[in-house]
Structure formats: structure tokens, C-alpha cells
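Box 4.2: Ligand-aware structure prediction
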Amino acid sequence: MSDAVNNCSTENSADLPFPDWMRAVQARTEATLARLLPPEEAIPARLHQAMRYATLGAGKRVRPLLAFAAGELTGATAQRLEIAGCAVELIHAYSLVHDDLPCMDDDVLRRGRPTCHVAYDEPTALLVGDSLQTLAFEVLARADLGARQLAMVRLLAHASGSCGMAGGQAIDLAAVGQTLNQPELELMHALKTGALIRAAVMLGALCGDPLEADAEAALDRFAKRAGLLFQVVDDILDCTASTATLGKTAGKDEAAEKPTYVSLLGLEGAREFADSLRTQALDSLAVFGERARRLIALTDFITHRKF
Ligand code: GRG
């Protein structure tokens, strides 16, 4: 593994400027995912090729970045954080494959490439999602993650299931053509997008030493605000950025008559809401002082991202 890839460990990353740290975590995540996924020649080869196609070579890796940044609060090792971060990223990759299927959002472009069911076929894409999801739990269960490993498995399962991401997707599908008020919209997004972002942060922290109860509550507050912020920015980008920049079809929410923060608050209102979520997220980190500097920088990255 190259120095850049190794340097993201919490033991020796203290001096890296944020962009270098971010690139190092992204490279380490890519290398770990490549190692954890079945080789593409292993039988059934077509399924394994499609799993690697859907997971490798693109994506911002925001969730692993959050896990690594949260791990800095509890002195977690990079060996544990790469496992926690990749488990969440595998769930995320599965959700994108299923979300793009014709029976859901029916999209042909993801991460600048044909979606999985277009590049392969629908049954394969369905099995890719299923297999990535179970691989996430296999990865989390077979590593040595310390005394709270079972709690980590439980946390990821809850965040992914019907009371988390899958439940949020169900609400999203039912909301097409409906007008939601702000609490309803917030619940949908807290589940669909927020639950996994929150899981990434809390899993990263769980890789290290236990936090005091009030510090854990502050981190949880941060994670919830950051998850919602991520979605509000996503809504803004959907109607302000181009398909080429996003690597996925722009303007889909409006075309599909989906309630979003932009449809509810207007573009300027959504921007103001994002700004207030950023402030609330950063306020929650105050208790951690300098140890939260990567989380602070990531909050700004999430706020100002262009895709
Ligand atoms: C199918 C159970 C199931 C759930 C799908 C995550 C999700 C629920 C749908 C994705 C649709 C979507 C565009 C949601 C908005 C927020 C989001 C998750 C955007 C994509 O995440 P990024 O920007 O993607 O982190 P990359 O490609 O960078 O990994």
C-alpha cells in the first residue's frame, strides 16, 4: 500500500492538510473495498463483476470519510475504521443500485456511468444489491472490532432497515405527487439519507474508546444535523447543477414530482436552511475542541460540494 493510502490512519495523519487527508482516506477505502469484494473471476463471475462495477472506481466516499473523522474523537485505529467505513459504503452502494432500478427511480446514469441494471440487467442488479448488503454485515462481523462489535452490527442493521434507509425510501416512493410539510419531509430524509450518515459517524466513534454519555449525545446531534444537511444540499444540487457535473440525471426530483426542500422552501429558503443546519452541526462539535477538526472540515465539504 502506498504512503498516501497508509497516511490516513489516525496514528499518523495529524499533519496532513484536509485535502490530502481526504484523498488518503478515499484511496484507502477504494483499496479496502477492492480487497473485500469477491474477485471478478470467482463464480458466479457476472454477479461478482457487477458488484465490483457498482462499488469501485467512483463515489465521494463521504460515509467512510465521516467514520474516519469521528474515529479521531475516540482514538480509533485505521484498521478498524476502514472496516466500519467500508461496511457503510457497501450498504450505500447497494442502495444506489436498487434506487436506480425501473421499479424505483428508474435511472440510467450513476456516478457518470450507466447504472448497474443498464450495464448488466435487472435481475443481476437486484442480486448485486442483495449481495452488497449481506457482504456489509459479513465484513463487520468477521473483523476484530473490539468489545462493542455486536452493537455496531445492530446499529448498521437498524440504520439500513425499515426504521431507517429502506423505510425512508418507502416514504419517498409514497410521497410522489404529494405535498409534504416540513416535519414530514424531515422524517423522510432523516430515514432515507440521514440514517446511514448518522451510522457512519457513530460506527467510526465506536471503533475507539467509549465516549462519555454527554459527548456521545453531542456527536449524535451532529450526525443527525449533518445527515439532513447532506440531503438539503442534494436537493439544491438536483436543481442547480448539470447532469455532467453530478454524474447522475439532474432535475429528476422536479420531473418526478417529488417533494424536496427546494419545492417546500424555494431555492433561497433551502440555502438558508442548509446554512442553519451547518451552524447547528458545528455547534454540536464544540465540546470536542481540536479533535473535531476533520468533522468540521467535512461539514464544510458537505455544505459546499459541487456534486
Ligand atoms: C433502495 C433501500 C433503498 C434505498 C435507497 C440512498 C437512497 C435510498 C436513494 C438514493 C437516491 C438519492 C439520490 C438520495 C439522495 C442522497 C444520496 C444518498 C445521494 C447519493 O449519495 P452520494 O452523493 O453518492 O454520497 P456517491 O456517488 O458520491 O457515493
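In the box above, the bound molecule is geranylgeranyl diphosphate. The chain has 15 helices and two strands.
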